[in-house]
């Protein structure tokens, strides 16, 4: 405990770090206050009709409850995240954007602008769909087209303002702004889920002992997730000696850290998008709702849904790792800098070696990721309420673990740079597995 208070004292002594943490907390407070400001023209009765189940429940968690409250920040940063992913995929598939990514600072600025324009377009479409699905036109005010037009502008402005807050946190605060905003939204749901589960166990079945067992299990799942997020396979790289003047360069052994889960949370997001199709088909084709297989696929707690969900995550993990980790580029960069892997010839042999290592570590990484993704469904079967079950795994838990580790690593870097002890007595905190957004933007945790 003494070590903890000493560390807090050291953090407060560093003026730059103190200002950055204060700025971060202030910006996050602005975001949380805004999440309770309701859209103009929406009464309590209308807002209470909002639905946040299934995939919408996950989006509501990312938005800190703003989605179900029909807030001006209801869409949060998700349109920006979607635009960033689209731009990232375009940079891989379209030569024009791939060339732009290699143009240095000017290219990154261009792609950043493209991302913002695409964010506005996505936000307008999602805002119109959100108003139609969350706010039922029962009153005369809602039947007026001006209501939809006005609140579409408000929701778009809200998303752009949240995006601006995220950029300000990154520039003036500590950690990745967009990731922290998502993390705060998720954490905001934890107290309510905790209280609901406590009441469910103490007044219903299970009792206090069962609730304590659930907390211990949650801690175990968090530790397991940290292992997956932090797990790396190091490849030794030897650099040749070079004598320049009176100085010697190279001749040292370094390591290329390859993440066990290089794809991060993206495979879960892609798989969830596909698993949402059966529920959509049921809503559009009521006659097909009698199909037993379709019913099972649409039920997130069924064994068929979770089996297919896990298989899709494994497939998407391999797919996303293949397009984000370029073994050939790594081998070329190594050769250009006079580096080589001991016992492996430079060139194609090095590419094959790195690709083989990536393939071997991706399999256990994808299986572990699939297990984490289906844990919420498994704990729901034993009586855990849906909101609390979401913290046992899936996208929300991986984001929480990743963002916390990344922020702590940045704080520790500030401490070590000024010759203070780090946050841990032994070892050092390493950053998370970030999912890079579009070029020109900082990595995000989605």
UniProtKB/TrEMBL annotation:
The keyword Protein transport applies. It is a multi-pass membrane protein. Pfam families: SecY. One of its GO terms (cellular component) is plasma membrane. InterPro entries: SecY, SecY/SEC61-alpha, SecY_CS, SecY_dom_sf. The chain crosses the membrane at residues 21-39, 70-94, 114-131, 143-165, 177-196, 208-229, 263-285, 305-327, 361-382. GO terms for biological process: intracellular protein transmembrane transport; protein targeting; protein transport by the Sec complex. Keywords: Cell membrane, Membrane, Protein transport, Translocation, Transmembrane, Transmembrane helix, Transport. It is found in: Cell membrane; Membrane. Belongs to the SecY/SEC61-alpha family. PANTHER family: SECY/SEC61-ALPHA FAMILY MEMBER. The central subunit of the protein translocation channel SecYEG. Consists of two halves formed by TMs 1-5 and 6-10. These two domains form a lateral gate at the front which open onto the bilayer between TMs 2 and 7, and are clamped together by SecE at the back. The channel is closed by both a pore ring composed of hydrophobic SecY resides and a short helix (helix 2A) on the extracellular side of the membrane which forms a plug. The plug probably moves laterally to allow the channel to open. The ring and the pore may move independently. Component of the Sec protein translocase complex. Heterotrimer consisting of SecY, SecE and SecG subunits. The heterotrimers can form oligomers, although 1 heterotrimer is thought to be able to translocate proteins. Interacts with the ribosome. Interacts with SecDF, and other proteins may be involved. Interacts with SecA. This is Protein translocase subunit SecY.
């Amino acid at each position: 405990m003494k070590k903890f208070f000493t560390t807090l004292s050291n953090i407060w002594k560093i003026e730059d770090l103190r200002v950055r943490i204060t700025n971060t907390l202030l910006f996050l407070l602005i975001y949380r206050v805004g999440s309770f400001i309701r859209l103009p023209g929406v009464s309590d009765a209308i807002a209470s009709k909002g639905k946040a189940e299934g995939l919408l429940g996950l989006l509501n968690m990312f938005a800190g409850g703003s989605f179900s409250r029909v807030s001006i920040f209801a869409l949060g940063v998700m349109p920006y995240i979607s635009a960033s992913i689209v731009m990232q995929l375009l940079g891989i598939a379209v030569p024009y954007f791939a060339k732009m990514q290699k143009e240095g600072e000017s290219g990154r600025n261009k792609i950043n602008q493209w991302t913002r324009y695409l964010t506005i377009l996505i936000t307008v479409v999602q805002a119109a769909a959100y108003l139609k699905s969350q706010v039922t036109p029962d009153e005369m005010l809602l039947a007026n087209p001006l209501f939809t037009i006005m609140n579409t502008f408000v929701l778009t402005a809200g998303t752009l303002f949240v995006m601006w807050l995220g950029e300000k946190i990154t520039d003036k605060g500590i950690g990745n702004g967009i990731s922290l905003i998502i993390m705060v939204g998720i954490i905001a749901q934890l107290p309510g889920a905790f209280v609901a589960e406590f009441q469910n166990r103490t007044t219903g079945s299970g009792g206090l002992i069962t609730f304590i067992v659930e907390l211990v299990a949650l801690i175990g799942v968090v530790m397991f997730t940290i292992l997956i997020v932090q797990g790396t396979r190091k490849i030794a790289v030897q650099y040749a000696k070079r004598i320049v003047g009176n100085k010697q360069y190279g001749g040292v052994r370094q390591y290329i850290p390859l993440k066990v889960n290089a794809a991060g949370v993206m495979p879960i997001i892609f798989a969830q998008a596909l698993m949402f199709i059966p529920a959509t088909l049921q809503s559009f084709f009521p006659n097909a709702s009698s199909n037993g297989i379709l019913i099972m696929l649409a039920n997130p707690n069924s064994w068929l849904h979770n089996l297919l969900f896990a298989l899709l995550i494994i497939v998407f993990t391999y797919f996303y790792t293949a397009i984000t980790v370029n073994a050939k580029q790594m081998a070329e960069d190594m050769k250009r800098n006079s580096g080589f892997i001991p016992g492996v010839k430079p060139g194609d042999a090095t590419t094959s070696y790195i690709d083989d290592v990536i393939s071997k570590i991706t399999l256990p990484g994808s299986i572990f990721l699939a297990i984490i993704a289906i844990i919420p469904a498994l704990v729901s079967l034993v009586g855990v309420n849906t909101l609390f079950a979401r913290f046992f795994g899936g996208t929300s838990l991986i984001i929480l673990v990743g963002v916390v580790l990344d922020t702590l690593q940045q704080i520790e870097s500030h401490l070590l740079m000024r010759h203070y002890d780090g946050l841990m007595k032994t070892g050092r905190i390493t950053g998370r597995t970030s999912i890079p957004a579009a070029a020109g933007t900082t990595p995000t945790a989605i």
